[in-house]
Design brief:
single chain; alpha+beta; 3 domains; six-stranded mixed sheet; 10 strands; His_kinase_dom; transmembrane helix; EC 2.7.13.3; Sig_transdc_His_kin-like_C; kinase
Length: about 475
């Protein structure tokens, strides 16, 4: 459940954004702290002032507290927690700015230049930070204002000429006023941009809902026609054998309706899952058996399981169903033959990965399963739509358009991500699933089993192809679904 303010701000995403700004890019954070440490030590040897060591220690302790607080927030956050994060950042600013302010009022030109550079860097960072919470931003402006007032006071006491005093006061005050206006303007630009993005997302949702409603109505109407038609004939035909056949046909139509509901639930990420720790490599071997009869001789196959077990917490049946969908799509994209490769490997995300829908894929260890083909690829104009419900390029009656949306729903529900890479040389579907926490005794139980899935497999490989996607002529493109 999201916690939103009156302006629609998601507090959890705001905390994640603050963490990303300060510590999300490890190389950037390491460079900043190395620069802080090197600058502080150099200043100590240059001036002999113990205050520089206190400055280094204060920055280190406050950043550790700030880092720990941001990383230990729960999945739901409120305004109070965002404010606490803001207050700890105020402390970091205050602990940083006093030393450059002291340096500016010294007689040594080298200290003055270094101090001015330090304050300038802080102002640029605060503008880039673009805090949205008004009280947090006001606190940042106030901390900078106090430092500017102190610098002006210390400087004006050393200047006797009235015109020079006026010039210094106007320069310092103008700098602070311009900084304040820029902060407020930047905040307004950010809020307007977020609202525009929300309106765009809402419009896309309404379009998707319209497609969803139309697709569901069309598919269910076909199913109900089959059910009602067979039951009507049941009333008119006296022969027991034919009546049994009609009942079977009606039941099969009802099963198709149940399958459609399951796919819709998977797309909505509400499909019930039987989660257990499974070795992805063993499941890939099952997939090879499952899809053996689906692939014609014109398609060369390669199923590569990892050398060491990769344990993932998932629903085995839904995982295999998702991969079968991807294999069938790859087959249909290569009507004249080609190469199908299913590979698995461990990967590690060192930083959180923001997604286009606003969610964040946490840093950590993942198992990447890739289904790649050498077909004609997906045209760029439809690449971002291929996971929408009921969107399909296949002929009427050859696909519901729920295959990829079901795959995406399953992957998201499992805590992972689906990404698609496509060019005129083929398409690769990447499923990124978080590696399960280790256990003393793994549970490689058989799960639903292959036989339970065979009845739901698509037609034989000898059946007519469902229509490959049209060719494209541009270079490689990437879409994160």
């Amino acid at each position: 459940m999201q916690n939103l303010d009156l302006n629609g701000m998601d507090y959890r995403k705001e905390v994640e954004r603050l963490y990303g700004l300060e510590y999300g890019r490890r190389l950037d954070a390491a460079f900043r702290f190395a620069l802080l440490l090197a600058g502080g030590i150099s200043l100590y040897f240059y001036t002999g002032e113990d205050r520089t060591l206190w400055w280094i220690g204060g920055q280190t302790v406050l950043h550790l507290l700030h880092f720990t607080y941001l990383r230990t927030r729960k999945s739901t956050c409120n305004f109070r927690e965002v404010m606490i994060a803001g207050v700890t950042f105020w402390a970091i600013i205050a602990a940083f700015i006093w030393l450059p302010a002291w340096m500016i009022v010294q007689e040594d030109p080298a200290l003055r230049i270094a101090g001015a550079a330090g304050i300038g860097a802080l102002l640029v960072f605060l503008i880039h930070r673009a805090d949205r919470v008004l009280s947090v931003m006001v606190g940042e402006v106030a901390v900078v204002g106090v430092a500017v007032v102190w610098i002006l006071y210390a400087t004006l006491t050393k200047v006797s000429d009235p015109s020079a005093q006026v010039g210094v006061a106007l320069t310092g005050g103008g700098l602070w006023c311009y900084f304040t206006v820029t902060m407020f303007t930047n905040r307004r630009i950010r809020i307007d941009a977020e609202r525009a993005a929300q309106r765009s997302v809402q419009a896309q949702k309404m379009e998707a809902i319209g497609q969803l409603a139309g697709g569901v109505a069309h598919d269910f109407n076909n199913i109900l026609t089959a059910v009602i038609g067979n039951l009507d004939l049941y009333q008119d035909i006296p022969e027991p054998v034919e009546r049994d056949a009609l009942v079977r046909e009606a039941r099969l139509a009802a099963v198709r309706a149940a399958d459609l509901v399951q796919q819709l639930l998977a797309y909505a990420r509400r499909s019930p899952m039987q989660v257990a720790r499974r070795d992805v490599g063993a499941l890939i071997e099952q997939l090879q058996v499952l899809t053996r009869r689906l692939l014609p001789a014109t398609i060369s196959q390669s199923f590569e399981a990892p050398r060491d077990p990769l344990w993932v917490a998932l629903d085995e049946s839904q995982f295999l169903t998702a991969l079968v969908n991807l294999v069938v799509n790859a087959r249909d994209a290569m009507p004249d033959g080609g190469t199908l490769r299913v590979t698995t490997r461990p990967v590690h995300l060192f930083t959180d990965d923001p997604q286009p829908d606003g969610s964040v894929l946490p840093a950590g260890a993942y198992a990447e399963v890739t289904v790649a083909d050498t077909g004609s690829g997906i045209p760029p104009e439809i690449l971002r739509r291929v996971t929408e419900p009921f969107f399909t390029t296949k002929a009427v009656g050859q696909g519901s358009g729920l295959g990829l949306s079901m795959v995406e729903g399953f992957v998201r529900q499992s805590g992972g991500m689906l990404s698609i890479e496509s060019s005129d040389e083929g398409t690769a579907m990447h499923l990124l699933l978080p590696i399960a926490a280790p256990e003393d005794t793994p549970c490689p139980g058989p799960g639903p089993g292959i036989d339970d899935l065979r009845s739901a497999l698509p037609p034989e490989a000898g059946a007519p192809a469902r229509g490959a996607l049209p060719p494209r002529s541009d270079g490689g493109i990437r879409h994160i679904a």
